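Narrative of activities, Objective 1.

The group set out to show that a structural description can be obtained from nothing but a protein's sequence at a throughput compatible with the screening campaign. Below is one input-output pair from the validation batch, recorded exactly as produced.
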Amino acid sequence: MMVTHEVHDIPTATGVMRTYLYRPDEEGPFPTILFYSEIFQQTEPIARAATIMAGHGFVVLVPEVFHELNPIGTVLAYDDAGKDKGNEDKFAKPLESHDSDTEVLVQFARSQPFCTSQVGSMGVCIGGHLAYRAAINPDISAAFCLYATDIHSSTLPSEEGNDSLSKTADIQGELVMVWGKQDPHVSTEGRKRVYEQLESTQRRFTWLEVNAQHAFMRDGESRYDPALAIQMYLQAVAFFTESYVDH
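Output recorded for this entry:
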């Protein structure tokens, strides 16, 4: 499918959130995927990833995950300065603010004539964490989480007992968790901690560990694995298609 692109500035409890919308250039309606970016916000690789998913029959919303902390339209560079600023933002924004962003995105999607009521989440790096976090919302029926950081460590700011790992039992939808075995940001012990929490809370999930480094989905950089990235896109498309049919 060909894809059309729109930009929406959506009011939230913590300020205006610029959100990039990608959808098939056809009538629809289509189910929605909330696509959460890395700490750098909507870079060109993220825009291309959203376009790929939209071209398979989904409305894809890419919010600026740190909209409160940056001017509208901010894109951080893939360099040390960008990484430092993104990590600073990551530890400055409480998870509760991400929760309210997700609620607004769901409401926005369901108000659009080209969207069905079905909403899922997907993300990479911290975006994988935010996709997991979004699934705590009962309106999110499925989440595809790629090398999600900081779930295992519970280091992102939140109220006591409201970190994402502790809230796992509240996830009602189905999850796919994808990890790179050579990812230095999430150790073997960290992955085991997440797996054990999902198992002990009897969540519905698929677990996949691949021989890849962190950010293996990010085209244009040395850690990119194009063959593996294509496999992940196809698995995500199949997963969301099956999840939306089931619901």
